[in-house]
């Protein structure tokens, strides 16, 4: 029987997953190196889409104290919100740093060899000599950016706010296809800049635009990272917007949200630029 790889990927979200990395990983705190390791694992806790680094405690130069982990509230969506790093879905112990609260977690699973899973904040991170933002780079994630001539129309609250036959299609593993449109094809006069900004490890820092009754309905990357250079300053829409491609409405929901069109393990409660 054939295996649907996308469904198989979503089923795997229920498990504790690990992957080895050949990278040298460093973390800095207040300008000082507190971690330098060549023996890190990428760890994906159950109900987590993105990984964190698990590192040998001997490679970490921090004085940590052990605490009981925070309880995870009952949530209908199988995927946890990305900003709650202190919610854990495997047995283990929380580790706190004075002045910062929980900064690490030690899972009980023996396959991790006693490694500590570090929070991304409050540290600055290097993979080899390259700064990394947002979260570790996932070796199983890919971004394709393709110029297209499909007809894309966007409505917000019954008003057409964008229409283009020269979109750029961005395909990112595990996420809905995003259609990025030239600002010349967007009714920018109907949108207002938002104070919201989110960070994507692959695309960079996103800026948001709001429409009446639809806050943060669109976003763009004014200074993108390498993977998003082709969509620099192009505008994409989600959630409150209705996006039609060649006359057919497409889903803009994150995996597992209402309206994602699939009965699968999803529900990342974060804006598109946050993953």
TrEMBL record:
Domain DUF427: 152-239
Residue segments, region Disordered: 250-275
Coiled coil: none
Pfam family of the protein (one): NTP_transf_9
InterPro entries in UniProt: DUF427 (IPR007361), DUF427_sf (IPR038694)
Highest taxon, organism lineage: Bacteria
The protein, known as: Uncharacterized protein (DUF427 family)
């Amino acid at each position: 029987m054939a295996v649907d790889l996308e469904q198989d990927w979503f089923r795997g979200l229920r498990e504790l997953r690990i992957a080895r990395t050949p990278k040298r990983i460093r973390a800095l705190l207040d300008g000082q190196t507190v971690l330098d390791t060549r023996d890190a694992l990428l760890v994906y806790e159950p109900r987590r889409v993105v990984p964190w680094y698990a590192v040998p405690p001997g490679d970490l130069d921090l004085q940590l104290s052990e605490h009981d982990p925070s309880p995870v509230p009952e949530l209908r969506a199988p995927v946890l919100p990305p900003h709650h790093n202190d919610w854990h879905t495997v047995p283990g112990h929380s580790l706190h740093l004075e002045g910062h609260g929980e900064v690490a977690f030690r899972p009980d699973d023996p396959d991790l060899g006693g490694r500590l899973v570090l929070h991304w904040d409050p540290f600055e991170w290097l993979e080899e000599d390259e700064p990394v933002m947002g979260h570790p780079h996932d070796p199983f994630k890919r971004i394709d950016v393709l110029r297209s001539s499909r007809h894309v129309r966007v409505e917000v609250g019954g008003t057409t706010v964008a229409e283009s036959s020269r979109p750029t299609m961005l395909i990112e593993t595990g996420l809905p296809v995003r259609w990025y449109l030239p600002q010349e094809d967007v009714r920018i006069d109907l949108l207002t800049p938002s104070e919201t900004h989110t960070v994507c490890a692959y695309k960079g820092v996103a800026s948001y635009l709001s429409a009446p009754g639809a806050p943060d309905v669109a976003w763009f990357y004014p200074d993108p990272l390498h993977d998003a250079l082709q969509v620099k300053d192009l505008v994409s829409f989600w959630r409150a917007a209705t996006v039609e491609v060649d006359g057919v409405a497409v889903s803009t929901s994150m995996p597992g949200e209402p309206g994602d069109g699939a009965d699968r393990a999803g529900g990342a409660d974060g804006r598109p630029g946050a993953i």
